[in-house]
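Quick log. Single chain, no ligands specified.
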Amino acid sequence: MPGRTEPIESLQIFKGISFPAAIRFSQILVTGPPGAGKSTLITRLGGWSEEGYVDLGRKHWWRSDILAVRPREIHIGLPFVGIGEAVSVFDPQLLDRDPLPVVDSGRIMLPPRKRFLFTVDWYRRYVFEFLLPPAGLVFERRQIRARHSTHPVDAQLSLAICEAQREIFWRLAAFMHAQGFQVYIREGIENPPLRLVDPATAP
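-> predicted structure:
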């Protein structure tokens, strides 16, 4: 995995769950691979229960109406090398390839930087929580779900897929952090949030 994390020292509590003290409840967007616990977390927070899909390869995704109501769970579409349009990590068009292609970060669209007093600072408007439990735990959860056929995303399931999906989101978190977005990682709902450490500041 790129980079490393460390605990966030200053925390606040929303609905019994710890969050960075510097953020507002209304900024939170929760993402992560299938089976990470996103819906459970949003339900506990009393957030927007309808899932949203955001294509990071599309122009002006940061203006999407889907992001207007927060906290919210979002599924992310990503551009991958060798695939024309953005797809999600559970899309068969991605999972049917061996090996799985890598994210084409050059095709991820980035919002403009804030230049004037009354323009929106899109990099500070949202806070992206990446919910990334260990792949083995996610695999166990999804195996249980698959027996009941409640989630179509579990049709293609293996530990290797769960590991690859987690790594894709980890690398996306590192990329967005490097671009200046507000990003943190959590390994489980009951776990404290972790901040990404820039390589230049790591010991």
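The mean pLDDT is 93.
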